[in-house]
Design goal:
196 residues, mainly beta, five-stranded antiparallel sheet, 2 helices
Amino acid sequence: MKYTRLEIPELILCEPKIHQDNRGFVFESFKKESFDKFVGFEVDFCQDNISHSKYGVVRGLHTNTLNYAQSKLVSVLHGKILDVAVDFRVGSPTFGKSVCVELDSVENKQLFIPRGFLHGFSVLSKEAVVNIKIDRYFAAAKSIGVKYDDKDLAIDWKINPKDIILSKADIDLKLFKDVISPFDYGENYYSMKQFV
């Protein structure tokens, strides 16, 4: 597995070595030992969530309140998405900045998003099956979020606006400037200070 830190260094792109022949392919999708070593702290994933969505669906932008915040490892089992992470840590030099990565079931790249970030994705293929590993159990009542089309964030979801499909909950989300972040860049949620 090849690991690469992105423009916001806490975000990590994971690229597997795919072994392919006339039978098909096989690759190592996760190896805790090498993953934790590169990340710099131990991540204990405890739950996998799988979603199936059709073209034009946008899910996000979401996180959970502090005691329920999750790190996520996002992969695509079928199709293609644009995966988006927004720095939501007050005081961070990249606060409010986003990183967008295309993930698909051909290259099988994954995106690691630690606690302190908003997360969302748009479906670019006819349909997509997305797997998200999380390190804290999901608590729906503790979820907070920001509108996907917030003008201050200016995220290009690579979907024609007329084709975008949202849940009612996501339609009702607030603007970035109106949501109080529970995350402080100075707090050590794992060992974040190592990146300063």
